[in-house]
Specification:
Order of helices and strands: HHHHEEHHHHHHHHHHHH
Structural class: mainly alpha
Helix content: over 70%
Shape: flat
Strand content: under 5%
Low-confidence stretches: 1-8
Number of helices: 16
Distance between the termini: 34 Å
């Protein structure tokens, strides 16, 4: 017979996913409509539609989902304000993606041309003056900044009690600062490859905290979670977030472009400073290390070169060791939940979610 906790948790999970999809969509549609109508200039309207499409097209909505889940498992009621907070996190994510694509020179995002690519294409088609690429990069940075501004506006106007919002603000501020610090370290790592510890620091700041820990804590803080439960969410969130990003690094090299929505050449061409590559460098032979030096970070890396790097990653044991790290962090996440005061069903589902996120294919 199904335990009542399991029933309650199943309903909670379904509601969190519904909010992350439908309710957040409603908030985003309302936001983009207001932004679009703020100026009748055709290019403004056109560009708003591009940003809207990027923000709302096929994203996993991991952060809004985590935010609402943190809220619901700690007794948060079904209030519209939590959907606005969740939408703010998705807009912040759009800001990060837009500017990350410019810095990484990524041509594709979510299976579509990246925003700066679309803007450069329009520049050329219209025959505008100046360098199309430079102009498009600058415009994309501004649109990213606007997403950041809109995220803050939505968060602060969510309509939830002021004391609850004030309690969640420190976690929101930390999330923003941490991901930008991580982005800076990632950018620096592209020109000066960090060691394994440095790669883990990038992973922690740019993804692990930002993807799972902080969104869970923001939702839980809004619901009035105890300090003890906030600490459990931190341990769980960091472990799951690290597993999530380690899997992302694997998919960035070995993933199917049609499934991930991103070219499997991008990270290799960028010379991405990942834990995966740091591990490979640790154990590579002299001959393998020379191939990595020649090919990793080569802007015009072709499929044959990428395949050679993949062979070295496997032969040097990098892929195996990362898979072991993913398994270990998933186990740590499940173990951390034993200290949570939520119902057993909640712990069970969070544990299952940790496994699913670490094994994802996109």
């Amino acid at each position: 017979m199904t335990n009542i906790d399991e029933v309650i948790t199943a309903v909670s999970m379904a509601r969190s996913m519904s909010v992350a999809r439908q309710d957040v969509d409603d908030v985003l549609n309302e936001t983009f409509a207001a932004v679009r109508d703020a100026d009748s200039d055709p290019d403004w309207v056109h560009d708003v539609s591009l940003v809207r499409r990027l923000t709302m097209n096929s994203g996993k909505r991991t952060r809004p989902f985590m935010c609402h889940l943190g809220w619901s498992i700690h007794g948060g009621r079904d209030l519209p304000g939590i959907a606005r907070v969740a939408a703010a996190l998705e807009l912040f994510h759009a800001f990060a993606l837009i500017q990350d694509d410019v810095m990484d020179r990524s041509d594709v995002r979510r299976g579509m041309p990246a925003l700066h690519v679309r803007l450069a294409d329009r520049h050329r088609r219209r025959g505008w003056r100046g360098d199309a690429g430079r102009s498009a990069d600058s415009a994309a940075i501004i649109w990213g900044d606007l997403c950041l501004v809109w995220a803050d506006e939505i968060f602060h106007s969510c309509g939830l009690p002021a004391d609850d919002v004030q309690r969640a603000l420190p976690y929101y501020h930390r999330m923003r600062s941490e991901v930008l610090r991580g982005q800076y370290l990632d950018l620096r790592g592209g020109v000066n490859a960090p060691d394994l510890d440095g790669c883990f620091k990038i992973l922690l700041l740019k993804s692990a905290k930002y993807t799972v820990e902080r969104p869970l804590q923001i939702g839980a803080a809004l619901a009035g979670a105890s300090a003890a439960d906030m600490e459990v969410l931190s341990r769980y969130g960091i472990a799951v977030g690290e597993a999530f990003q380690l899997r992302d690094d694997v998919l960035g090299v070995f993933g199917d472009d049609a499934v991930t929505g991103k070219s499997a050449l991008t990270d290799l061409r960028d010379g991405k400073a990942t834990v995966l590559m740091a591990l490979v460098r640790q154990s590579a032979s002299a001959a393998q290390a020379q191939v990595i030096e020649d090919l990793h970070g080569k802007p015009d890396l072709d499929d044959a070169g990428a395949e050679r790097l993949r062979e070295i990653i496997m032969d040097a044991g990098g892929l195996r060791r990362v898979e072991e790290m993913i398994d270990r962090r998933t186990e740590q996440a499940v173990a951390a939940l034993q200290g949570m005061s939520a119902a057993d069903g909640c712990r069970e589902v969070l544990g299952q979610m940790a496994c699913e996120l670490s094994r994802r294919t996109h």
